[in-house]
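Human: Cast an eye over this sequence-structure pair and say how the chain folds.
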Amino acid sequence: MACTVACSDGSDDDIPPAIEPPTKPEEPGKEDEYNKPDFELHKDGEPFNSYRGLVMTGYQGWFGTPDDGCLHATKNNTKWYHYRENDMFEPGVLRNSIDFWPDMSEYEKKYPVEKFTLPGGGNPTVFSSYDESTVMLHFKWMKDYGIDGAFMQRFVGEVIDNPDGKEHFDKVLQSAMKASNTHQRAICVMYDLGGFQPDRLTKTLADAKNIMDTYQLKDRSKQKFYLYQDEKPLIVLWGVGFNDNRPFSLTDVETLMNGLKEMGYSLMLGVPTYWRERRNDALSDAKLHDLIKAADVIMPWFVGRYGKNNYSDFHNLIANDVKWCNDNGVEYAPLCFPGSSDRNMHPENGVNERYGGQFLWDQMYHCIKSGAQMLYMAMFDEIDEGTALFKCLNKKDVPSNESSVAYYVRYKDGNYKIVSKPGTDDAKYTLASDYNVTFGGIEDDLPSDHYLWLTGQGKKMLRGEIPLSGSLPVR
């Protein structure tokens, strides 16, 4: 054995070993806190009889490509459905609408985009929601990562009096119903009231009735995993009570609600952030509370209302929301989102950073700690506003968003327009490249599935399977 510096050579100058202080007994650590569910834990393979205990995600399903087979894809003004901006899907702000780029490695059908270039050369690809294989893959991911299911967005303005849009969303819903049964995920239809107006009331009810009949939602042997609430299939109306001058009244919404109830649906409403206090983004009309009390579940919209640094300002709001709903017999599904941007369509917007998932985790943790019994995750696939939870490219791998042509952006009163040169009016004119809008992406030190995994961990925290902790879980 080799002698070390402290090794004795037998002389009188040996240095005795240091006297170790007595070992202090370790103080007992603080026991982990766990959520104590006030709901029956859902078991795999069983029908979903309540939103309680579930972590659900919003699913836009609105992406299309010129060659996906849908009628809308053959029309010049609707090519690259929800990828395009100003009738283009090309590099440059206001020339495309997406802020993240999907990780396409697992898709069966891929559509090349020749106008864009990857960092290492070559052209990237995108998916179409119109393809059944795309929806099947997305629902498989929900199952793989423990997400209970999806609210299928159905935009009134795109399915009523719009045959091309209706064809697209009908096909996406058909694929999702099949995927729900295949992967045993909950599914629920959510009407976005954008485009709703009183003269579309009858047609909207007819559309809901057609869905009820086509998929035999009252027969659990046909669509076993359709989400039920209070022993009835649940349907959602999003956009109720906002004070942004929508072309319908609360009375119109009440009539729509009553019609859906008569069909046999239970109801969930998507409402403004300040619905309880009826201020800021919400109508002050007391009738809003009457409609909420007549619903089974509500979900307030939080995207864009806060970021990581000021989320604590909303802690009391959420806790008081939970108390109000408990006192009034309404289920409360708070929204959680990973971050947002929306800069290719609105370059003056800021970016709500993700902080490696800590921002998302803060929201899930606080909502559960405040007593929420269910969560709404926004959104599964919304790459066009930067809220997507699903697999996206890392920042280092995204295509270039630099246009090959120089142009200006005219901005006034919240409206944007592409122009060839600055004007002489009082609008703001900015060289498009000066905005420096690049595609966002999953942080380079994280895998592309990080936010799916994190959402699944949030479900475990809700169910009391892992500690109720504000610390980001380690994978």
Summary: The longest strand covers residues 149-155. The first helix runs from residue 132 to 145.
